Amino acid sequence: MRVHERGSGETRSCGTGACAVMVASAVADDAGRGTTYRVDVPGGALDVTWTDDDRLLLTGPAVLVARGTMTNPLAAAR
After folding, report:
1. Where would you tag: which of 21, 26, 57, 67 has the fewest CB atoms within 10 A of its CB?
2. In 10 A of CB 4, how many CB atoms?
3. How confident is the model at residue 74 (pLDDT cuts 50, 70, 90)?
4. How far apart are alpha carbons 16 and 13 in whole angstroms?
5. Are 41 and 13 in contact (CB under 8 A)?
6. What is the pLDDT of residues 15-61, one digit of tens each?
7. How many CB atoms lie within 10 A of CB 21?
8. Domain limits at 58?
9. How many domains does the chain have?
10. pTM of this prediction?
């Protein structure tokens, strides 16, 4: 799966999109709940499971790709 975000370009992963792709595929396949699908994204492979109680479980790699700090400009004005 590939995702293009307006203003950002192509992203390495998208959890919401991966879950949507999994549900669409499971419905098309007439797969039972509890079946795990692997969704390949540029950032790695994600496993998505649609559980019997209608939840989606997403597992996969997580890597810190940026770090930053921010100063609240409103706090400085006080």
Report:
1. 67
2. 9
3. confident
4. 9
5. yes
6. 999 999 999 999 999 998 999 999 999 999 999 999 999 999 999 98
7. 19
8. 3-76
9. 1
10. 0.76
The two three-digit tokens of residue 56, written as one number: 């989606």
Return the structure tokens found at 49.
Answer: 């499971």
Determine the residue type at 39: V
CB 23 within 8 Å of CB 56: yes
Helix, strand, or coil (residue 11): strand
Report the CATH number that the domain containing residue 42 is assigned in CATH. Answer: 3.10.310.10
Environment class of residue 78 by beta-carbon count within 10 Å: exposed (0-12), middle (13-18) or buried (19+)? exposed
Is the distance from CB of 1 to CB of 40 less than 8 angstroms? yes
User: Do 46 and 16 meet the contact criterion of CB atoms below 8 Å apart?
Assistant: no
**HEC sequence for 34-76:** CCEEEEEECCEEEEEEECCCCCEEEECCCCCCCCCCCCCHHHH
